[in-house]
Amino acid sequence: MDVKKTGLILSGGGARAAYQVGVLKAIHKILPRGDYNPFDVISGTSAGAINGIALASYAENYRIGIRHLERIWGNFECNQIYRTDFLGVSASLARMTRSLMVGRRFKHDPVSLLDNSPLRQLLLEVIRFDNIQQAIDNNALHAIAINCSGLESGESVSFFQGHYSITNWQRERRIGARARLNIDHLMASSAIPMIFPSIRINREFFADGAVRQLAPISPALHLGAEKIMVIGVSGVAHKRKERRQQSSYPTPAKVMGHMLNAAFLDSMESDVERLRRINRTVDIIPDKIRKQQAMELKKIDLLEINPSQSIDDIAGEHAGEIPRALKMALGGSGNASRNGSGILSYLLFSRGFCQNLMELGYNDALAREPEIRAFFADHITQAAKAG
């Protein structure tokens, strides 16, 4: 049995990405024992890029990589990601206000609600970037991409590090550019606009990769993936929400949460739906006709795993863990389940919330063990032969 290159798509979502760690832990439990990496291609966006880079740096020992991720996310505190003290939050708010009111006199000031310099320091301590190229050279990994959004060009840029055979690509408003991935790519990919500061890479400033990401699955396909696993963070995927009567104007936290949902969740759900339509089309067109007409369409096996519970609701249950300074920055509404849980679920890097999401991801994946075994059937067969 030929082993197809398996691509892993890790979407963005701030603290929601803890869910991905639980799913990955369950996959490791389900697959045959060993240190091999089941994902040939990894494509990560925002916090998903952080998880992806961590996996890539341990591609030669997947088991240790999962434990490493679990240990990091299971012990998170908000102050490890951004400054939560009143002085730090007040300074960020002052810079933002000054830039908006005074303008170009302070054009070099970073404009952001929060200062995420603690995240940079943490990532420098826990990520071994040099291991990535070693894993590629030793065939433990084919490629990894970190997705960012260019603020000047308006393009979705996939910075990738991978096998020498992979070439740069360019499509409408999205490009792939070979790079030696480093801390700046991670910080840029996770720079949620107006919440965290944008990062300059080469000649352009970049923000969170989920912004203007029209086709989140595409980078993995360009990098050679022949089947795709998507670990989303939308929560109760594709379920319509109840329309409630609103008696007051939406709070700033509610509006910001709505914007983040549009950036992080909608494009992934749309792209998954598009891929499923293509697969159905390919199924009904005979191979002979596709070859005669030189159709480039081909079927891509897809497995999507999303939270079985509302992450917003879970965030509301942990609202008491939000730092007081952040609550102040959100206009006092960040602690209200209905009014602020949307944005809260992105920024609540607290131990209780992250551990809850990891447990949810673990249980959701175990509940779908037959599908996961079927998806990795070729890997399981190969592992059995090697054993």
UniProtKB/TrEMBL annotation:
Keyword Lipid metabolism in record: yes
Motif annotated as GXSXG, chain positions: 44-48
Sequence motif DGA/G, residues: 208-210
Top-level taxon in the UniProt lineage: Bacteria
Keywords recorded for this protein, A-Z: Hydrolase, Lipid degradation, Lipid metabolism
Record bears the keyword Lipid metabolism: yes
Residue ranges annotated for the PNPLA domain, each copy included: 8-221
Residues annotated as the enzyme's active site: 46, 208
Matching InterPro entries: Acyl_Trfase/lysoPLipase, NTE, PNPLA_dom
Protein known as: Patatin-like phospholipase family protein
Organism in which the protein naturally occurs: Bacterioplanoides pacificum
